[in-house]
Amino acid sequence: MIIPAVLLALLSAAPVTPPSRPAPGLAPAKTDSGSDIIALPMMTFSSDHGISYGAVGGIYLYGPGKTPYAHGIGAQVLFSSRGVQSHYLRYDGPRLIGPLRLEAGLEYRRELRSPFFGAGNQSAPDFKGDLDNERFTFDKGSPGAWLRLRGRPFGPTHPLQSYVGYAWRNTSVSAEDQSMLTQQQPIGIEGGSTGQLLVGALWDTRDDETDPLEGGVEELALRVSGQATGSRYQYVGITLSERRYLRLSSRLTLAQRLTLDMLFGDVPFFEWSNTGGVNVSEGIGGMSSVRGIERNRFSGNIKAFSNTELRFQAAQMQVFGKSMKVGAVMFLDLGRVWHPGVTDGKWHEWHPGIGGGLRLTRRAAVVRMDYARSTETGRQRIYITFGHMF
User: Residues in domain Bacterial surface antigen (D15) (predicted)?
Assistant: First the structure.
């Protein structure tokens, strides 16, 4: 059931949230008036969330001189078999205010049995892999909204991008008496709002934003929370990220990502696992940081992770009259955490995950299917979702 639903979404249309600029090889963007409407069923799977099912859709309005479109609206309704809900409504205006791009969203996320293993690089040594154990879980709800204004100050073809924005989220927390969260009582146990002022810059030389073969992107991001931003907690976050793509041959690409995220101040525990930037990640552990390790297995004020992928384009074929690329990937992920007041181990004690997977690509749409294994515990995980990891 999962693979047919994924293929349907891949073959029917481009992604609901297109890249910020047309990628090489895509059909020319429409510049006349008119609209496109997309609505698709969606089904994905991960060992952390179980089977996720729902629908995703988008509306694109075109106008003269507006590329790739004048207005884009995307929406998602998603439920998982492990009690996760993830719903959103997003807007994208690539040239709404002169050359500036306006992006905004309303979101609601709810998690039953959200993971909590404590802080640090050696947290919860008694965890044996049971994600339903109430000692290592809590329930979380978090409606939120965000707004971002992004532009290219030196022209539409210059690699420098900068942005400023604001994000607000209100997190509710509920945990059982026997849970680690209740016993440790970290900052944030009461829940509450986290308003963040967002500022960042990117240097983007990728040849393709959604399926790059060459170039790279460097990003520096800052997020600030305090009373002035509508936050119950006062803290600062800094994210440094490097993504690099080296084309080894016509079919082989080496992809590398390095991320360092640092939090300072009165940081609530539910922010320990989050990174900043245009494309946020969770970790350490899970499909967006270190595959093969349970989601958010290690978290804290300072997180670092590395992702290395060897991507191979195996074939190009016609499926239901649509051109599709089939690829394979081998990967090595590494991650580590530092947190004040806890024992983090020696500097070289990183948590690895290894594995491989398949990629199905239709224009700017990418379906990712990964198998990963933790070399520390031997536990294995599977992920089926949309988009490259980086």
Answer: 151-390
Band of residue 23 on the pLDDT scale cut at 50, 70, 90? very low
Helix (H) or strand (E) holding 171: strand 160-174
Q: DSSP secondary structure string, 337-351?
A: EE-TTS----TT--E
Nearest to 381 by CA among 16, 3, 121, 46: 46
Q: What token pair was written down for 152?
A: 């290219």
Residues 6+ apart with CB under 8 A from 282: 273, 274, 275, 288, 289, 295, 296
| Residue (of 350, 352, 170) closest to 268 by Cα position | 170
d(CA 384, CA 57): 19
Find, among 179, 248, 164, 176, the residue nearest to 214 by Cα.
248
Residue 149 sits in a domain whose CATH number is 2.40.160.50
d(CA 210, CA 199): 23
Residue 54 CA to residue 51 CA, distance in Å, equals 10
| CA–CA distance, 103 with 112 (Å, rounded to integer) | 29
Of 92, 81, 70, 4, residue with least CA distance to 40: 4
Tokens representing 306 are 């590395």
For residue 186, the model assigns a pLDDT of 97
Q: Strands 365-374 and 215-225: what pairing?
A: unpaired
pLDDT-derived band at 64, boundaries 50, 70, 90: confident
Q: Is 130 exposed, middle or buried (0-12, 13-18, 19+ CB in 10 A)?
A: exposed
Full domain range(s) for residue 231: 2-386
Looking at the DSSP assignment, which residues form a beta bridge with residue 215? 245
- Range in 42-46, 97-101, 165-169, 364-368 the model is least confident about: 364-368
Q: What is the DSSP letter of 28?
A: P
From residue 339, alpha-carbon distances to 50, 179, 191, 235, 261 in Å are: 30, 20, 20, 15, 12
pTM, full prediction = 0.88
Q: Is 132 exposed, middle or buried (0-12, 13-18, 19+ CB in 10 A)?
A: exposed
Long-range contacts of 318-324, Cβ-Cβ distance < 8 Å, separation of 24 or more:
319/7, 319/11, 320/11, 322/11, 322/362, 323/362, 324/10, 324/11, 324/360, 324/361, 324/362
Count of domains in the chain?
A: 1
